[in-house]
Amino acid sequence: MHPVPPDGVGLSRAVVRRRFADLNKGTTAEGEANDDVSSSRSVEEEAVPWTEEVAALVSAGYDQVPAWLNLVLDKVGTGKPLGELTNERLRDFGRGLNEDFYPGLPDFFEDVTQLVKQYRDISVEFYIISGGLKQVIEGSAIVARYFRGVYGSELEGETAGGILKRIKRCVTFTEKTRYLFEINKGVDVTEAQKTLTS
């Protein structure tokens, strides 16, 4: 069995920043370069998840997750750093992270699943509860294969495939606790989301 990475299971911040720089270059939904994107800052500078801007909003009273989600939305649109960002582009971004997981993944999930099968009346399920973007997380083939559910922040456009315009769901520390409770009680992810919108 492979050891669990010291910072937990997932991706290093450096990998995410590097990949975010690629997303941040600005492409259209068809994957073509967005020539409208112009900035005097380098992609790497712009790609860092706007640390100073988030800190300023948090100092002004924003919770951290809505602060960075609003900053993402501020950078979406024609001529802006993220271009015409859609949920499909976020899923594509997530697909691109598959080879960048810590060493030992996805073997870790397979190993644990097989180990638990040796015991009666025990099962294991994997979930992700994150303040990050659900569409990015769900883009991963590893997540699709091994995880029963993903709880994450979501953005939406005017239409189902449209350019992202507003925050649909924001997962803060409080919501994370609620989702743990729902998982413990056996509430399915899709059912939990339906009850929120009814």
What does this structure look like?
The protein has 198 residues and is α+β, with helices and mostly antiparallel strands. It has one domain. It is built from 10 helices and 3 strands; from the N terminus they run ααααααβααββαα. Helix 3 packs across helix 4.
Mean pLDDT: 80
Distance between the termini: 44 Å
Inertia-based shape? globular
The structural domain count equals 1
Beta strands, count: 3
The helicity comes to 40-55%
Task: Indicate the radius of gyration in whole angstroms.
Answer: 18 Å
Into which percentage range does the β-strand content fall? Answer: 5-15%
* Low-pLDDT residue spans: 1-9, 26-47
Topology:
Blueprint: H1 13-24, H2 43-47, H3 51-59, H4 64-74, H5 87-95, H6 107-116, E1 126-133, H7 134-138, H8 141-146, E2 147-157, E3 164-169, H9 173-185, H10 189-197
Parallel strand pairs: 1-2
Antiparallel strand pairs: 2-3
Helix pairs in contact: 3-4
Compact overview of the structure:
The protein is of the alpha+beta class. 45% of the residues lie in helices and 13% in strands. It has a three-stranded mixed beta sheet.
Keywords:
198 residues; globular; alpha+beta; disordered N terminus; three-stranded mixed β-sheet; 10 helices
